[in-house]
């Protein structure tokens, strides 16, 4: 299997490796199906820009580190409900959110690493909720590297799920952190630290963030974790930035916008390349990423001409020279 931009889909050579869902989270196209060109146009109109497919070259590649699709969609539904209740100023579905948080922590804990399903995989109506789920998953993964305990993981994950909830109260980007904080802090069952994730996730070490222009140690650690996860998820869900490029962008922010320990936890949590990515190596041979073995950033590859697998971690002189988009 492999992740592709929808513009790369080849009806003759590819089939879906994972189902596609509509805005009501119902299966629109099942795994194993091909996509008719007219339906492909409709998916584009719906805002779907990423597909998970399989072709002859990516056959047999599985991504066990990725959350299973039904679980991901169920958590998206819980977050959507929370945002809709907040907009109506009704009681929060806190028990459902707590169960979702427990599920995410469990799913992250049983994996060495977790691959995100980009929010560009879902329709426009679900993107914001999928984004929040992905930010929470990556925040948990980073916090594992920082040796957070279970209580800390729960508070972090809940705050990350709700980090953008202020957007239901205002259309002004600069105002949503404060609006979200003010709403969350009225919920006695939610830690004030979780509320501060909403308030501070756009603050930067150099004081150039918002809404308050905090700097340095004025910014709490939980929001910094969420902030890095937020930036990364936005980047990989755009149609312009590949995962390794997103990582490089975030690395440039070390001790400038985010604390070094947070950036290092991020680097030690996120693989540079997704399985199924086709690459050109320094020996000018074409290959496909199979998965991770010894190193997050030096994956196992399979040559496309003879199916030989090589662990780049064990072959330091062999490097990835180029990503082959098609």
From TrEMBL:
<dbReference type="Pfam" id="PF01966">
    <property type="entry name" value="HD"/>
</dbReference>
<dbReference type="InterPro" id="IPR006675">
    <property type="entry name" value="HDIG_dom"/>
</dbReference>
<dbReference type="InterPro" id="IPR037522">
    <property type="entry name" value="HD_GYP_dom"/>
</dbReference>
<dbReference type="InterPro" id="IPR006674">
    <property type="entry name" value="HD_domain"/>
</dbReference>
<protein>
    <submittedName>
        <fullName>HD domain-containing protein</fullName>
    </submittedName>
</protein>
<feature type="domain" description="HD-GYP">
    <location>
        <begin position="68"/>
        <end position="282"/>
    </location>
</feature>
<dbReference type="InterPro" id="IPR003607">
    <property type="entry name" value="HD/PDEase_dom"/>
</dbReference>
């Amino acid at each position: 299997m492999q992740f592709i931009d929808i513009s790369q889909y080849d009806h003759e050579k590819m089939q879906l490796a994972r189902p596609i869902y509509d805005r009501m989270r119902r299966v629109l196209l099942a795994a194993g199906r091909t996509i008719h060109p007219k339906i492909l146009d409709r998916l584009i109109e719906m805002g779907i820009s990423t597909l998970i497919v399989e072709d002859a070259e990516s056959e047999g590649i599985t991504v066990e580190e990725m959350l299973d699709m039904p679980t991901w969609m169920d958590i998206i539904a819980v977050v959507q409900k929370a945002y809709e209740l907040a907009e109506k100023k009704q009681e929060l579905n806190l028990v459902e959110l707590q169960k979702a948080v427990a599920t995410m922590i469990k799913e992250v804990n049983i994996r060495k690493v977790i691959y995100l399903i980009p929010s560009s995989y879902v329709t426009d109506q679900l993107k914001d909720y999928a984004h929040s789920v992905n930010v929470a998953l990556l925040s948990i993964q980073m916090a594992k590297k920082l040796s957070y305990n279970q209580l800390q993981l729960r508070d972090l994950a809940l705050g990350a799920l709700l980090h953008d909830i202020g957007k239901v109260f205002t259309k002004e980007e600069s105002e949503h952190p404060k609006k979200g904080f003010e709403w969350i802090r009225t919920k006695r069952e939610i830690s004030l630290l979780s509320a501060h994730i909403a308030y501070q996730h756009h603050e930067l070490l150099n004081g150039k963030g918002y809404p308050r222009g905090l700097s340095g140690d004025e910014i709490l650690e939980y929001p910094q974790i969420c902030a890095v996860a937020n930036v990364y998820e936005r980047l990989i869900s755009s149609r312009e930035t590949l995962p390794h490029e997103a990582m490089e962008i975030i690395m440039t922010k070390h001790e400038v916008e985010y604390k070094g320990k947070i950036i290092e936890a991020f680097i030690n949590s996120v693989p540079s390349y997704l399985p199924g990515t086709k690459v050109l190596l320094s020996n000018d041979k074409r290959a496909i990423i199979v998965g991770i073995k010894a190193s997050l950033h030096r994956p196992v590859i399979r040559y496309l001409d003879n199916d030989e697998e090589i662990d780049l971690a064990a072959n330091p002189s062999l490097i990835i020279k180029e990503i082959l988009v098609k």
